[in-house]
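Running low. Got one?
___
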Amino acid sequence: MDLSKRWVPAPPSDGGAVRMEAPVDRGVLAGLRGLQGEEETDIVAELASVFLDDARSGLEEVEEALQKGDAPAVERVAHKLKGGSGSMGAREMSGLCAQLEDAGASGDLSRGSGLLKRIREELGRVDRALEAEVHANRG
């Protein structure tokens, strides 16, 4: 019996192509827009602005907590980032924040810096996607 087949995952059925999930689920944004009245300003633009400010601030808090080795603070801030990104439809970012939250909860911050880097990169993608969505809605 070839044990390597039991432990090595099968290659993707699409020939190995890497699929990138859209940074933001447009269905979530459409749902948010459904909550606003006809005469109101774009709710997505307002929420995106608050979310992006909070996310940037939160990532700074996480960086500081990682430098101090403060696992409970990492867990708390990552939890907040996970919720905010999930509410904006940023599923990939939310998933990364969940991993960081788990690291904080376990007290093992060895992956913290790597996760923080990935979350920052994903936040850049989310920022660009939200900007494009808000711009497209103005037209």
Residues 42-138 form a domain with the Four Helix Bundle (Hemerythrin (Met), subunit A) fold (CATH 1.20.120.160). Residues 112-138 form the longest helix (27 residues). The radius of gyration is 18 Å. Confidence is low (pLDDT under 50) at residues 1-19.
